[in-house]
Amino acid sequence: MNEAVVQVRGLRTQFGSHVVHDGLDLDLNRGEILGVVGGSGTGKSVLLRAIVGLDAVRAGTIDVLGNRIGTLSGPDRRALEQRWGVMFQDGALFSSLTVRENVEVPLRAVPGLTNAQCRGLAELKIGMAGLPWKANDDMPADLSGGMRKRAGLARALALDPEILFLDEPTAGLDPIGASAFDRLIVTLRNALNLSVFLVTHDLDTLHACCDRVAVLAERRVLTTGTMAQMLDVDDPWVHEYFHGPRARAVTGKD
Ligand SMILES: Nc1ncnc2c1ncn2[C@@H]1O[C@H](COP(=O)(O)OP(=O)(O)OP(=O)(O)O)[C@@H](O)[C@H]1O
């Protein structure tokens, strides 16, 4: 029996008169890597931001690890935030802090951790994200795009989260860097028993990482299933996406 660590029901989000989601339902099950795909502007990032409480919800409910988003007291909300990590598309690092200091930011909010413990834990997470120790003292501006993403991942892992939210983790990476990042996501999921909500356009990432895919279209989740199941979905966008030339290049099938 699947345990949903994220459960979205009847979600409606909108900015002014622009409705992004309407009646959207989605589950992220414990231990799975769920790929969230959809055309540009279908609301993948807004969905991620709504789940972690950064974008307002007009209707519907979002439960994360049994807690209803939008109803929690300050301390409960902060306690819940410590159980997830978010890696935004550009890494969202503080430009005036070193990589280690960036990763220390969430650790500093934990009562009882000494400076030395924060430092040690930050260095551990930076190593887990696949960065060399030399990167600890680098400023974000000194890093390549791929290294910045790994630094953002290290920060997302800082508090030993149960859920990892990744917004287009391989966007802008060269194919070798992207496939290394894909492998890292799977390795970390397996080692840390993470549940992963992964927004992506990258078909290679879907194939390499994802147990299930959710397709966003028409303001809701149009379909969910395995990559194999996506091949049989009778919808023009889904068909083009999973059977188009780029999909054939990934699978090697005509
Ligand atoms: N803060 C905001 N204010 C107004 N409109 C917004 C805001 N954030 C997002 N939107 C709009 O919501 C829609 C969905 O945006 P979102 O970034 O979630 O799309 P996406 O599916 O992630 O797109 P892409 O694949 O291009 O990154 C877009 O039309 C966008 O312009």
UniProtKB/TrEMBL annotation:
Domain named ABC transporter is located at: 6-243
- InterPro entries according to UniProt: AAA+_ATPase (IPR003593), ABC_transporter-like_ATP-bd (IPR003439), ABC_transporter-like_CS (IPR017871), P-loop_NTPase (IPR027417)
Q: What is the protein name stated in its UniProt record?
A: Iron ABC transporter ATP-binding protein
From what organism does this protein derive?
Answer: Paracoccus halophilus
Record-level Gene Ontology MF annotations: ATP binding; ATP hydrolysis activity
* PANTHER family xrefs: PROTEIN TRIGALACTOSYLDIACYLGLYCEROL 3, CHLOROPLASTIC
Q: Which UniProt keywords apply?
A: ATP-binding, Nucleotide-binding, Transport
